[in-house]
Amino acid sequence: MRDEAAMTGAAHVHFRVLGPLSVEGPGGALAIGGHKPRTLLAALLVARGEVVPAERLVSVLWGDGPPDGAMTALRAYVSRLRGVLGDAAPLRHRPPGYCLALHTATLDAADFEQRVRSARAAAATGDHARALADLDAALALWRGDALAEFADEEFAAPEAARLTELRTGATADRADELVALGRSAEAVPELEALVRANPSWERPAVTLMRARYATGRQADALAAFHELRARLDDELGVEPAAPAQDLYRRILVHDPALTATPRPGNLPRRASGFVGRERESAGVLAALREGPLVTLTGVGGAGKSRLAVEVAGRDRARFDDGAWLCELAALPEDSPVGDAVSAALGIRQRSGLSVEQTVLEYLRPRSLLLVVDNCEHVLAHAAALVGEVVQHCPGVVVLATSREPLGVDGEQVRPVPPLPLADATALFVQRARAATPDFRLDPAAADAVAAICARLDGLPLGIELAAARMRVMSPAEVAARLEDGPLLGGGRGPVPRHQSLAAAIEWSYRLLSGPEQRLFRGMSVFAGGADLRAVHGVADPGAAEDDVLDRLTRLVDRSMVVARSGVHSRYGLLETLRAYGRSRAADAGETAALTRRHVEYHVDYAERAGAGLQSPDERAWAEEALGVYDDLRAAFTRAAADAEWDLAVRLVAAVPELVHLRVGYEAYAWAEQLLPVVDPGHPSYAAAVGAAARGAWNRGDFPHAVATARLAGDRRPPPGTPRIAYPHDVLADVALYEGDVARALAHYVAESERARGDGDRIRLVWTLYYVAVCHAVGRHPEEGLAAARESLDVAEATANPTALSMARYALGLVLKKSDPDAALALFDEAEELAAAVRNFWWQGIAMMEGAATRAVHGDPVEAARALVAVLAHWDRVGDATQQWLNLRYVARLLQRVSATADAATLHRHLVAAGKPSPLGPPTAPGNGRRADPRAAEAAAVASARAALGRVLSGELATGRA
Q: What is the model's pTM?
């Protein structure tokens, strides 16, 4: 067996500057030394990995009058720091100075900034709960003032000021998210403090007005405006800006929208204003109230998607469960749509159900507006699922977009006409000013713009492409070029209109340079967009990356490419432009090479992401990889279609941790598809078997899970394999679930020894976790304490959030009875760690055990609130096994608060479904028949929600102090 140093490799180091400078390794705080070494380290950290000249460091350490031998002393301090930090954060000499390599270490300031960016990206899509969680995690990193002991030093003051400003902005963001989530009362104290500290900053004052009004304090909300107005007048001699004045007027007239309950959903925030379409919007809104299905039809580029999102945003307040957008454009032609719809709704396939049945089960009791966008290339599958939703989900209304009707009973078809001249002109001016802010519509330009809009048949996409040319051409020049081009005018109706749009796209394409045209064609291979690295590697690998970025920027400027911000900027084509790009790539004979590069790039990416999800940077990898998922699907589909089995199986073996824990079960079908055709000797075969077996396990099909896992024989996946893709683990888990604790325990004890020998720390955390769980299930939790503590020690060395979450959960589980307070803290930490990396399964079990612990030992009202959240979580995740366990915890709480009738009702539901009840055996003999499992679960969950609601409302005495 290898020694510990060899097994763990370089220790991970955490640098903390959001407060007093500190450095932490696996064993705790590292002793950096006195003021000079600490100052040296701070200067290197401020540089964020860039080289700091030696002369600059001497000046930082000794000021303008350094002593003789200062360079020698600097080298001594550098040597001392190297000895403390080791290989985890190498301090390197790079002429003309030194740099601190941070790629294997973490810096709390960088983590803070990344979390704030993630929060703002989530807020932009309407995911306010996610944004709030990210902001809470970001602000929790602060332990005092930034670079506190160096804030007055010249080298640190600008960075300290920058970080402090970011902190203030994040605090304001947090208040915004609280208000957006309907938690205005919590936001008011924070906003009042922000306003006191920043009296001339309008944004927190405006949010304070909104929050006070939402809590019934109209007079105080108006007072906040008057106080802001007085401050701005005294200090700057200006009036409040439009947002403050508009809100003031809305408060005066009691605008109902100010107190409307926020609705969930995922509708995107518009990057630009919505122009015109008032008649169409009103017509679609009226149609949505008349029937369960409205389909917007029209040619590509007519603005169907934009209109659908606009109408959904206006109508979502009518639906208790909000409005949700499912985009189908990235799906391969004629493919099923169930996985895409479930992913958009954030739900996963339930045990014993197909993904389509899961969607129907989830939607059946809900009041929800579902926007299904770009149905035309998957028309049959989209129509089939939408038809089922219309028939079986009475509270759901579907708004679809397609180039042709779905053909479903009850469908109302609303053709999307071209924009009338006034609206078309307004759109042209808006997009022209985005390209050229000083664009003016004088009389001469107005005539040319009218000619452009008429020539383009009022189609928004064509108008936007033409407007983007205002940076280098005048309206008259564009009109003249269009007049001389091969546009088809004269006729009306869909065919001429579609031809005119195609000609407008052709014209825009011809105006690109040769390299820009090649890049545009190459980008058409991406299903869901790509970052710069992917664009370079797939679309134009022969060019320098800087040249690709320059061309990409020009394509964005010309509206040929759409740029989306997030963790990394991503670039994509609208579907109409993507179809055109594919046709031009085919004409150029480039399709085969592009497809091959796309597949190879994404197989490599999947393997890098799989490793990244087991690293300290799991959060960043998860955020990024979820955005690549459409292209991972496309890469697998292409590899399988071309019988590229090596590439297909490598991708399947790499993605289980991304897909299973964060998306759904789609990739397990990929694994099952490969098993009959892949060589069992392939290095990734065992992991593919494990992925397929785990999918059967999640579906609740244990016989199939066992049969699939046994296909691996004695083959084992290599170290670094995703945690859930080990076939022999599935066999052990089936044994554990069926009551053979000893067999499962023996497996995981042996596997933990194997992991030690392999030096696979992630695997060791997993196996030790299960050793602890086996002891807890076997009712001897104290015997699992050593394994749980070792799991935590190893997890700390990995700094991987999921590993840290698992280890905390394991330790909490074995301490739950003997030290409930410690267990509760561990469960809460485990939940936070898992949620931060979107690992919803580990988040759910930590939530559940925390709620269960509160149900026995904590405040009953807090326990009830937590159990309601867990019911909703498992309902969305679709794990019936965990939901039934959660229902047992609800029954215990109801018994504790003397809700005798509610507890007895839930007990009957458990017994009727053949599930154990904490309240004992049935009180009366049954008829020997069990209820339908899904119906029984739905009834039990409804009963539990109602009973917990009575606890929360105060109807039931809880004994709360």
A: 0.69
